[in-house]
Write a structure and sequence with these properties.
Elements (H helix, E strand, L loop, with lengths): L1 H6 L5 H10 L11 H5 L9 H37 L7
Length: about 90
């Protein structure tokens, strides 16, 4: 069945916990896509072509993070307006 592949999955929590705890990098950089989200790329001794590519990656990451931030701000505004809005007057 289709749902078996979604529900009956192997438990990989212990493996992931070992990977996270054995890493010496900061917590916010331990996930596989953290560098994509935060835009942290080492520039070190790269050639001009590689630096251009890194700058383009940072640009794309900045755009991605900006879209994410706008979405989160919209969500926060929606929750706030639902929680603290005044009830409508009945005519």
């Amino acid at each position: 069945m289709f749902t078996d592949s979604l529900v009956n999955r192997p438990n990989t929590v212990l493996e992931q916990q070992r990977v996270f705890q054995s890493s010496h990098s900061p917590v916010y950089l331990r996930t596989p896509r953290a560098r994509l989200y935060l835009g942290t790329h080492p520039l070190g001794s790269l050639s001009n072509h590689q630096r251009h590519r890194v700058h383009m990656d940072l640009l794309v990451t900045g755009i991605y993070f900006s879209i994410y931030a706008v979405g989160m701000a919209g969500t926060a505004y929606g929750i706030y307006s639902l929680a603290f809005s005044k009830p409508m007057k009945k005519d």
